[in-house]
Each structure stands twice: as C-alpha cells, then as structure tokens.
C-alpha cells in the first residue's frame, strides 16, 4: 500500500476527526434550524402584522383620528365604505397583537368598549346626517321653509319680522308614544346599523336620554355619546313628519300658498310662523291627522291655536325668549345687550353730570329716560327691565356710596337698598320694582322712581 493510502490507526487522530465532523454537522444543523425558525418567525410576524393592521381596532383608531381632524370632509361614498367594517366587528372576538413567551399585550376591555361604542355612534351619526340634510333639502317647498338654526338665531333674521301668527308645539309626549321602529325601518342602511339602533331603542336608552334632555340633567360618559345620536333620531323624526304634512298641505285646495310658512325645529319643539292664520290652521289640522295615524292620543286638539305675535318687536334689538309649554306659546321679550349697554351708558352720563346739580334734575332726567324706554316695548310684556333694574341698582348704589352727604347716603341705603335682595337672584316671580313699572304720560309726575323717594 502506498503511503498516501495507508490507514492511520492512531485513535487520537480519529477521535479528533470525528469530533470536528460532528461539530460541523451540528453547526450546519443549527444553521438550518435557525434559518427555518427565522423564516417561520418572519411569516408569523408578517401574518400578525397584516392581521393587526387589518383588525377592526386599528381601523377604528385610524377612523377616530380622522374624525377628530377638523379639516376633513367626508362624502357619502367614504361613509358607506367605512360602514362595511361593521359586519366584521364583534367585541368578544377582537384579536389583538399577542406574541412572546407568556406575555400578552392586551388593551383594557373597557377602554376598547368605549372606543368602539364612541366610533360606532359617530359613524351612525354621519349616516343620519345624510338623511337629515336631504330632508332639509326636500322640505323647502315654495310655500314652506325650514331653518336648521336655533329659534333665537332664526328670529333675529329681519326677514321673519313680517310673520304675524305663530304656533309653538311641544312634541316630547308624542315622541314617547310614537313607534320609532317604523322610522328606522324606512332608512336604507346596513342591517348591522339597524341592529344597533334597535338595541338602543330596545334597552330604553333612547327614552332615558329623552327624559334627561327634558329635565336638563347631567350625563355620564356613555350617555354623552348617546346624546348626539338621540338628537339625530328626534330631528330625523320631526323632519319626516314635516315633509309628510307638507305633502298633504300642498294637495289642499282653496289655500293661498303665496305666503310662506316658516318652521324652526328646536329639539322636540316646533315654532311655526306665518302671516295668514288660515294656513296655520290647515297645517295644524294635518299635524293632528299625522299624530293620530301614528297612534298618538291628543287630550285636547283645540288647544293648538295660532296666537298673534306681539307687535312692536324689534328682532334686531330685542331678545325673544320662547317659554315652551304644551300646545301653547309664551313669548318673553327682553332688551338686547346693545340696548342694555346704551341705557347704562346714558345713566352713567346722567349720574356724572348730576354730581354738582340739585337732586330734582337727576329725578327728571332719569324719569324721562325711563319713560322713553318703557314706551319702546309692548304693554303686554311686563318686567322687561328686571335685569336692567339690577344693573341700574348697582350704579345707583355706587353713586350713593360716594355721595358727600352722609345723611342722604345712610337714609337711602337703609330705606331702599337693603330692601332689594331679589335683584341678586334675577327672579322674575318676585314683586315688581319701580323700574319695571310702565310710566304713563298722564301720571308722569305721580309714578316716581326710587331716586325721587330717596330725596324726600
């Protein structure tokens, strides 16, 4: 045998060769296992990433962030695309990123519930807003206009000052007894959203929030989210009624439709104004028909009567406060902030000029000022200047306090200023004050105010 092919019988050499081969084999095996493990881990991580990015939670988080951005405007197509994810949402089966040894990265379930409920209500609000905007659009007939703004804002428009008659209707009791499920069935929305609305109505949440709205009570965190949804349902219901009434109203003969009817909805209140009382009677008649057909029982139909709006109201210079009562209207008129400022400015000028003058000049000037202001409002409105009384009272108190004559100051303070605690409460049910009393031309020098009495 050649030297190259001779066997090496040295055990140490063979042991060294076996160990090196074994180590190399193990290293190769580790490398393959590691590579396979890495590849499998990459696939798992990739699948988890895809599942996490496509999970409803991340969709809702991204949607919530997009909602809160003020410069975003959504179209109906975008809303319909977003709503499709409702079908795959189930709070109990939401899977989140869970990975590592005995470690679960979970969010708190309550926070998840609040988040999903919040975003769900917002998306449903968007869908209802599409219907509401469409109802506002189709309700603008040639003989009828519905304003989306509040009553005070709409009445401040000078174009409404020609309306002479009005009906104020409180529909809160009607909404309690109406079948709102029939309204939800008319909406062309995804079945999942209908289930959410049915769940909201079935648990009594709708009526609970209605009662809290009617009583002006506070709301919890969840109830604040439901509040906007309940308002949208009420607005949608009232606008649907107005549209159905307008259709019936337009088919009636012998009606002068040249004068438009103005409707201003404010939650479950309706303020209907027009120049002709016959149109309001007809509109009221069809409203009664609609309520009766929906299962509402009216205690007294004759109580819904048009009342004459007070003459002499300046919609730019006066506050119009509508006192809501069932099937009745009560208007309270107060001077605007500009008029209050003007009056106080004039009083300040008169007080400043009268510091070195006799007291009777101050009395005459203030009486003339009160005479002008009392004639500017209708005689039907009592205690119009109650707030002004309190402001004038503060001015007079400050004026008397710094008056040099201590005897007059003490006399006025003890006899008149101490006896006026009701000014501090802004109460309109207390006894009328001298400023709130109307000044009559014939009794001009007999109806004196507090200033003249203080100087006697």
UniProtKB/TrEMBL annotation:
Keywords carried by this UniProt record: Chloroplast, Membrane, Nucleotidyltransferase, Plastid, RNA-directed DNA polymerase, Transferase, Transmembrane, Transmembrane helix
An annotated Gene Ontology molecular function: RNA-directed DNA polymerase activity
Keyword Transmembrane helix annotated: yes
Top-rank taxon: Eukaryota
TM annotation in the entry: 45-63, 79-99, 119-138
Protein name as annotated: Putative group II intron reverse transcriptase/maturase protein
Originating organism: Calliarthron tuberculosum
Name of the encoding gene: ORF456
């Amino acid at each position: 045998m050649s030297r190259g092919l001779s066997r090496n019988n040295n055990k140490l050499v063979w042991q060294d060769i076996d160990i090196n081969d074994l180590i190399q084999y193990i290293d190769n095996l580790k490398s393959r296992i590691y590579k396979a493990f890495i590849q499998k881990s990459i696939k798992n991580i990739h699948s988890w990433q895809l599942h996490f990015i496509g999970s409803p939670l991340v969709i809702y988080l991204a949607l919530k962030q997009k909602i809160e951005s003020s410069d975003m405007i959504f179209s109906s197509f975008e809303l319909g695309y977003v709503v499709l994810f409702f079908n795959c949402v189930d709070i109990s089966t939401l899977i989140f990123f869970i990975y590592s040894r005995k470690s679960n990265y979970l969010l708190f379930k309550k926070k998840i519930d609040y988040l999903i409920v919040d975003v769900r209500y917002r998306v449903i609000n968007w869908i209802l807003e599409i219907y509401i905007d469409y109802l506002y659009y189709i309700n603008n007939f040639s003989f009828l206009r519905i304003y989306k703004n509040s009553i005070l804002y709409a009445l401040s428009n000078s174009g409404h000052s020609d309306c002479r008659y009005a009906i104020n209707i409180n529909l809160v009791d009607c909404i309690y007894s109406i079948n709102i499920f029939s309204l939800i069935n008319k909406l062309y929305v995804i079945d999942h959203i209908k289930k959410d609305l049915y769940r909201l109505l079935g648990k009594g949440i709708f009526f609970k929030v209605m009662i809290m709205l009617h009583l002006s009570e506070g709301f919890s965190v969840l109830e604040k989210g439901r509040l906007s949804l309940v308002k949208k349902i009420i607005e949608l219901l009232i606008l649907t009624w107005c549209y159905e009434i307008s259709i019936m109203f337009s088919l009636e003969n012998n009606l002068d439709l040249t004068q438009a009817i103005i409707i201003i909805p404010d939650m479950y209140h309706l303020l209907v104004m027009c120049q002709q009382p016959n149109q309001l009677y007809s509109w009221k008649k069809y409203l009664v028909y609609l309520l009766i057909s929906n299962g509402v029982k009216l205690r007294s139909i004759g109580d819904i009567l048009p009342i004459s709006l007070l003459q002499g109201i300046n919609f730019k210079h006066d506050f119009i406060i509508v006192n809501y009562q069932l099937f009745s209207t009560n208007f309270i008129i107060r001077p605007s902030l500009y008029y209050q400022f003007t009056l106080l400015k004039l009083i300040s000028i008169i007080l400043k000029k009268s510091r070195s003058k006799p007291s009777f000049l101050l009395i005459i000037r203030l009486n003339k000022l009160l005479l002008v202001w009392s004639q500017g409002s209708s005689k039907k409105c009592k205690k119009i200047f109650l707030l002004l009384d309190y402001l004038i009272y503060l001015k007079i108190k400050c004026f008397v306090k710094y008056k040099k004559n201590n005897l007059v100051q003490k006399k006025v303070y003890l006899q008149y200023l101490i006896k006026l605690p009701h000014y501090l409460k802004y109460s309109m049910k207390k006894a009328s004050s001298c400023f709130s009393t109307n000044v009559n031309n014939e009794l001009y020098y007999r109806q004196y105010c507090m200033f003249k009495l203080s100087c006697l």
